[in-house]
Design brief:
The protein is of the alpha+beta class. The chain has 8 helices and 4 strands. The strands form 2 sheets. The protein has a two-stranded antiparallel ribbon. The longest helix is centred in the C-terminal third of the chain and has 25 residues. The radius of gyration is 21 Å and the shape is elongated.
């Protein structure tokens, strides 16, 4: 049909550059830390004292700490379960909307169909990410000490502190662009 589209789902646009409250990191930087983890962080005396003040007491011989990978994008979107669900939902919704409606493709043109299909895929991928956040499917789960240190909601699902529209989840969006 002569048209190609680029689909992006993640921490994109203006929200990517906003400083995430209390972290000193942008939303994109914080997202990268959670998505990929950090294998080796050298413990400074300042860090040791801060963690101690928050109730996390490191052993004297602990010189490095690790932040585990908590994939909130790759696993929900590219993992086998996520891909299967995205394909199923897009197929059902798209078939019902396009083939089960009174729309005439001749009036709209095939290009419109491709564009709508790209948006349907992007939306379903975004919904997979949102579902992983809200249904606490992100592994490994947040450690109890990390939940205690949360400012807003200590009992929230992994990676959520401020709810659906705030924090890291609130910075995730999607976009579809035509490639010319």
């Amino acid at each position: 049909m002569g048209r190609k589209y680029s689909i992006r789902v993640g921490i994109i646009g203006d929200k990517a550059y906003q400083i995430h409250e209390g972290s000193g990191l942008t939303n994109a930087e914080l997202g990268a830390v959670h998505e990929f983890g950090v294998k080796k962080i050298n413990v400074t005396e300042k860090m040791r004292n801060y963690l101690h003040s928050q109730g996390l007491h490191l052993k004297k011989d602990t010189t490095t700490i690790e932040i585990p990978e908590q994939s909130f994008l790759r696993v929900p979107i590219l993992g086998a379960e996520g891909q299967k669900k995205i394909k199923k939902n897009v197929k059902e919704k798209f078939t019902k909307e396009w083939l089960g409606s009174d729309r005439e493709l001749n009036k709209l043109g095939a290009g419109h169909l491709v564009k709508d299909f790209a948006y349907a895929i992007a939306l379903e991928a975004f919904l997979q990410v949102e579902d992983a956040f809200m249904d606490d499917k992100i592994k490994p789960p947040t450690k109890p000490i990390s939940k205690q240190m949360r400012k807003y909601n200590p009992e929230a699902a992994t990676l959520i502190d401020k709810g659906k529209d705030g924090g890291l989840l609130g910075s995730i969006s999607y976009e579809v662009k035509e490639i010319k």
